[in-house]
Amino acid sequence: MKIEEYLNDLKKEYEKTEATLHLKAFGWDELSRQIDPTGTWVSFLPYW
Amino acid sequence: MPDDYGEYVKSAIAGDKEAFGELYRIFLNRIYRFVYYLVGDEFSAEDITQNTFLRAWRGLASFSMDSGTFQSYLYTIARNLVIDSQRKKKAYPLNGLEEVIESQEDPVTEVWKGEISEKIRQALADLDTEDRQIIILRYFEEMQFGEISEVVGSNPGAIRVKVHRLMGLLKQKLEGKI
At the top level of its lineage, which domain of life is listed (chain A) (predicted)? Predict the structure, then answer.
């Protein structure tokens, strides 16, 4: 098996790594508060 | 991942925060996993990921789609934050992959099961962070040499040579020659 094939197998597993549940659930809201502390715009629930 | 996020980028540059929110949704997992595979712990990866997007938003006024892709813009910020983080924590090992293995019992651990996975894991873990990120960007993120050069601040020809050299190095490691 070539090194590229090994890496391709590894890539499949790499792609399974997702952001933490905390980031998925609250990341955008936390970030949006830093971007716009006045909160004059509507946050949204992300659709993952 | 959608390839048509260009409109979101244009809107975000114009100050549209909801468009930036869409970009966050599109890139969150990718930036997180890139960072996580470099730093090796969830807490740091979360922190660096959030700071990446915050800096990206704050720097959008100076970002031009003519000078590079939004994707390379994000990865460059993430990379620089990883480097800053590791400078601050000099005692922290750069071999993030090893940390991933030792600290996790989630699906990430499953990645490395089996002899071959172990060999490739070790070979990658033995690379320094700079080299490892090039392999990740090239083979996991499937970036072209030109885009990788934007991220790491080099030129495409040098990246091509480096990838070739690293692949040779990994092959030798897998074959037990070094």
Answer: Bacteria
